[in-house]
Design goal:
heterodimer, A: 69 residues, two-stranded antiparallel sheet, B: 159 residues, mainly alpha, 5 helices, 83% helix, 0% strand
């Protein structure tokens, strides 16, 4: 699943550490999310979208083909 | 690492309780270590149960190993309780969902390797000794029984 975390983070001039602290994960998890090596849980996806004050769909791009659906 | 449920820990105050629970576990582990070492050393001195020398050394080694591990973790947790920043870092590290997933996947892979190796050891060891065969047979059986039991247990539990 692709996401636009890095894009939103850079727009808001927020560091990976600040985002990690805000959503209660490690910086390594933010790095993995941004590089697409890890898919966030529903809870983390909610926390991230609430942090950026946008909907989950705005940040996480659900591709039917990519997910084999 | 001792597995203790972190429950709904959301702040350092909640995590302090988790650390205190973990410390109790390590204190218990230390008691087991002391008992193991006492039994091993006592047996070596008094020769109550005639045992192979290396086994006695191994038992005392395990006992002192448990004591050392317990001391290290108790000291570490004591320091954490006094340092809010370090505690937050530790809390994030332990509660991070990616780290939890990595631990689970590593445990799953390790369990599969353990069962596979036990099965091979059971087949090869069985050619030489019935005792070795049954030792490894029990390892495989306990794993399978525990797997079935916990599968049913978690099916009815809120995840």
């Amino acid at each position: 699943m692709q996401n636009r975390i890095q894009e939103y983070r850079k727009q808001g001039k927020i560091t990976q550490s600040e985002l990690a602290d805000a959503v209660d994960v490690t910086r390594q998890t933010i790095i993995s999310l941004e590089s697409g090596r890890y898919n966030a849980s529903l809870v983390l996806a909610h926390k991230i979208s609430q942090f950026f004050k946008v909907s989950i769909e705005d940040i996480f791009i659900f591709d039917l083909e990519e997910e084999n659906i | 690492m001792i597995c203790l449920s972190n429950g709904n820990v959301k702040a350092n105050q909640d995590y302090k309780d988790v650390i205190k629970r973990k410390m109790k576990i390590y204190w218990a582990l230390m008691v087991f270590g002391v008992l193991t070492a006492i039994v091993a050393i006592g047996n070596a001195l008094l020769n109550i149960v005639p045992a192979v020398e290396r086994v006695t050394n191994l038992y005392s080694g395990i006992g002192f190993g448990l004591i050392a591990v317990s001391v290290v973790f108790i000291v570490k947790y004591n320091k954490l309780l006094k340092n809010e920043i370090a505690m937050k870092e530790e809390r994030l590290k332990n509660l991070d969902e990616r780290n939890i997933l990595i631990s689970r996947m590593a445990a799953k892979s390790a369990a599969m390797v353990l069962v596979f190796c036990s099965y091979i050891a059971m087949l090869i060891g069985g050619l030489f000794s019935k005792v070795i065969f049954y030792c490894f047979w029990w390892v495989v059986m306990v794993f399978l029984i525990a797997y079935v039991f916990f599968s049913f247990y978690y099916r009815n539990k809120k995840l």
